[in-house]
Design brief:
5-stranded mixed beta sheet; 23% strand; alpha+beta; 15 strands; flat; 6-stranded mixed beta sheet
Length: 362
Amino acid sequence: MTIQSLDKAVRSGTNSFEFIDVTSPTQRQSHAEVGLLTAMLGGGQVANFYNTDDKFVYDDMVSTIQLPTGKASDGYGNDLQKDKPRELMFRGGSYGFRWNVSPHDVKSKRKFGSNEKMTVEDHVVALSEKADKAWALFTELSYAQLLTTDTNYVAGGPAKVYEYHNTIEDSSRPAATFMDLDNTTDVWLAEQAQLDKLQEACEKNGVSYTTPVFICGSSYFDKRYALEVNEGIAREIRGPLDLASMAIPRDSFGVEGGIFRRRYFESERTGAVFIRSSESILSGTPLIPADKAYLVPVGTSEMFARAFAPKTDMRYVNTTALERYVGVEEHNERGITVQEEQNVLYLNRKPACIIALDEAAS
């Protein structure tokens, strides 16, 4: 529906805002601007599936290996075993909110930091931008939960929580590996062992990637960087990406537009990249725990996926899903009410390719 514009012309004799002396306004927000995980793990590196219902189904098969065995000269040896495929099925959840602009929101109201009269359009634009930020934070939380807990984020709703390593690999995600960052052991040898482990997991899962990255909590990063400095081998990355002294373009992680400011370094011995993440959303709890790090392959589209489902509505049922649904209702007394909805499942199809590390011994 068309949102009707309001006439901004107000006669001086009736403008109750004219006598107000508006000084420079202040504006704060309840959250930090985040997006590192979305840029690194999502964007052009996530596979999007637009389904006609809430089920996401795909076939999975492990190609096994079998060596020849010794046998008698007139024997046959062991039978070569057939690989058995299986069907994996997941169901996504539904997420959303609504917002309203009522006549009371604009009646005798002025714009923030201005004497100009508030309009319906002003409120609609402001709430639309707030909604977009909310969806961006939801996306970042979803990737953070895949990384840190191996589960899908359900935002307190009734959707089923999946432990992907358990479902796909038939075992729980291995406990975080202790990395001695107090330098009582050779941390570079220990890291190389984890990099070898990541390489093997990626080869087994058919995952090709460009860069192994340690996404580190604040304490883990600070201690690990101190070891590089103490060894006298720490060096900043020079070239298109100098994370220690400049912004990280989203383009470097497959997402267009925007920048991120992060401390990071590249290990001279292993060539791995370490990025510091200390952001939190609303609760104050960091997305990446301070003493943890997660080794992930960056530059692959074989791991993370989003499965979208259509809105449960006669107009959309059994149709190809959209990423977001927005419904608008206009009422003379209640004003404009907007409902936004996303029916989605975030999943990691190759959970063995994330390696959790911990600076504290368990």
